Amino acid sequence: MKYSMTQWIFGGEPLEQTLQRLKKYGFDGIELIPEPDRFKDTKQVRSLFDKYGIEPSMMDLTPFHDLSHPDEAQRKEAIEINKKMLQITNEIGCNKMLVCGTAVGRIAAISSYEEEWQLGVDSVRLLADYAAKQGVLFVMEVINHYETCLYYNVDRALQFMADLDHENVAIMIDTYHMNIEEEDSCRAIRRVADKLANFHISDSNRLGVGHGHIDFFPIVKALKEVGYDGYIGLEPQAPGPNPFEAIKADDSKETVEAYLKESIDILRAIEAAV
């Protein structure tokens, strides 16, 4: 398995500074913040990946743009920002980008769930076509129902994919969200194994591995058993309120860096043992 981390957990610090952190601990990749202003010079961005020997494993989702909003203007805005980020994802040499069917943080329907489900399907299908032309795989992130309102568990994500019926769409699941939504995380892994394109890890409290109550041994074992050989993306957050805010205290970055080192060491040890 290869290991990456999500750039946003260090706030808005420059990419090179984050790459320097990851290089120290032997990370293979990085998931990037999807803000167009951060990629004005895509050649320069690509040169940083070459310099540090770390690849862009995935572009994260555009979290606050709503692909299922009943207001057409808001949906169109969301579609356009996703198109822009898909272009950038291709230009920097990355081949995966996350998508969520609705805005992260919106936990209830505005019109009706049935209408917004179909609007989300239509928007993601349209973007999946566009992503395919860019050579980018569109990856649905399954986020818990306290943060989203469409596909918040594996069952609903698989139904969304069935309704999409598009070969350029895959799934990403996350130990933190599964800890909330799934009866059995290992069963969830097996159910999506043939569609699994990325895998996120943080503990039950969204801190680093070992700081909560998730048993990662059977999870890593299940990933190996289903033949998953993609990226493990670490996404620990600094402790504190507001899950959408990375920097919560003066020492947040130092805390997160310590979590990354601890987490990758523990996961490598488990991987070697299973």
Précis, in short:
The chain is an alpha/beta fold and 274 residues long. It is built from nine helices and eight strands. The protein has helices spanning 15-24, 42-52, 72-91, 113-133, 154-164, 175-181, 185-191, 216-225, 252-273; strands at residues 2-5, 29-32, 55-59, 96-99, 137-141, 169-174, 196-201, 231-234.
**CATH fourth-tier homologous superfamily:** Divalent-metal-dependent TIM barrel enzymes
What is the name of the CATH topology? TIM Barrel
The outline comes out as: globular
CATH level-two architecture: Alpha-Beta Barrel
Secondary-structure element pattern, one letter each? EHEHEHEHEHEHHEHEH
| Total domain units | 1
**What percentage of amino acids are in beta strands?**
5-15%
Structural class: alpha/beta
Strand order of the largest sheet: 1-8-7-6-5-4
Biggest sheet statistics: 6 strands, parallel
Unreliable runs, pLDDT <50, ≥5 residues?
Answer: none
Strand tally: 8
